[in-house]
Amino acid sequence: MEGKIAITDPFKLCSVGTVKRLLLEHKIRPSKAMGQSFMVNKSALERIVNAAELRQNEGAFEIGTGFGALTAALAQKCQLVISLEKDKHLFSVAQSLLSPFKNIVLLCDDALTANWKKVLEGQKGVERWKFISNLPYAISKPLLMRILKERKLFELAVVTVQREVAQRMVAQPNSQGYSILSIAVQFYSEPRILFNLPPTSFYPEPEVWSSVVKLKFLPKPRVEVSDERWFFKVAEAVLMQRRKTIVNALSIRFGLSKSFLKDLLKDCNIDPERRGETLTLKELAHLAENLLDFYDVKF
């Protein structure tokens, strides 16, 4: 079968010509709605695999198998690769292309709803898991939040996302990209942008540049809070209304008087006229803890 070029060299799948041929041969039309693009940059593929620092006793978990270029490359470096592909047609093609690899498990499932823990647990010979994936761009943000939620399953993550999303992941206070995503990523991990990729690194070419980001998960959150859900509720309250002052944003969100909030903010050494995008993680944590002492939280 001509498609079995992946068997001897996974990197042969990583070319425009090969991807075009496979799309034509299997009558596949990449879905923009699902953010389907296939990596055709061999150098980038190699750098992604190397960034994961996989060992033979480790496992790799991937979202979006595609034709399996990254899947097969990972399989050469570790004990086991588990890859999820939602598209049934692509899943069937990938099964055929990757069938010679005995250490690859392909699952046709939705990454946003699948039980990751159940999928990973009980795999013999795997001492630890690492998350490595070119995330489907259409759902990259909810997937990133899911990765953070499931962070205890993994030692680290190496993800390819839109460059704008990557910049938000590492954004600092007082910058345009500083958002809830910035806070969540930095609350639970140490993020680092490894390198950027032009649209020509994929086929079909996306309309944006991409970035590869490495997340090293922290043993505990970066700042100490007594209730993480409450911390993020407060963070959302002050960041979702960027043009409003902190006191106005909190008053609208929690129905508290501005005079009370001004006094509380002053006790936290936070100017009530500041905007939420200026608050550091430490300041947000301090504010959340003080609000929690005075506010009857109802989830």
Stretches where pLDDT falls below 50 for ≥5 residues? Answer: 1-7
CATH architecture of the largest domain: 3-Layer(aba) Sandwich
The total number of structural domains is 2
The H/E string reads HHEHEHEHEHEHEHHEEEHHHH
Please report the total strand number as a whole number. Answer: 9
Largest beta-sheet characterization: 7 strands, mixed
Distance between the termini: 56 Å
| β-strand amount | 15-25%
Name the CATH superfamily assignment of the largest domain. Answer: Vaccinia Virus protein VP39
Q: Tell me the CATH topology of the largest domain.
A: Rossmann fold
Q: What is the multimeric organization of the chains shown?
A: single chain
Overall form? elongated
Secondary-structure-derived class? alpha/beta
CATH class of the largest domain: Alpha Beta
Helix segment count? 13
Q: What's the Cα radius of gyration?
A: 22 Å
Key descriptive features of the protein:
about 300 residues; elongated; two-stranded antiparallel ribbon; alpha/beta; Helicase, Ruva Protein, domain 3; 7-stranded mixed beta sheet
Structural commentary:
The protein is an alpha/beta fold. It has 2 domains: 2-217, Rossmann fold, CATH 3.40.50; 228-294, Orthogonal Bundle (Helicase, Ruva Protein, domain 3), CATH 1.10.8. 40% of the residues lie in helices and 17% in strands. The chain is built from 13 helices and 9 strands. The strands form 2 sheets. A 7-stranded mixed beta sheet has the order 4-3-2-5-6-9-7, sandwiched between helices. Helix 10 crosses helix 13. The radius of gyration is 22 Å and the shape is elongated. The chain starts with a helix and ends in a 5-residue tail after the last helix. 38% of the residues are buried.
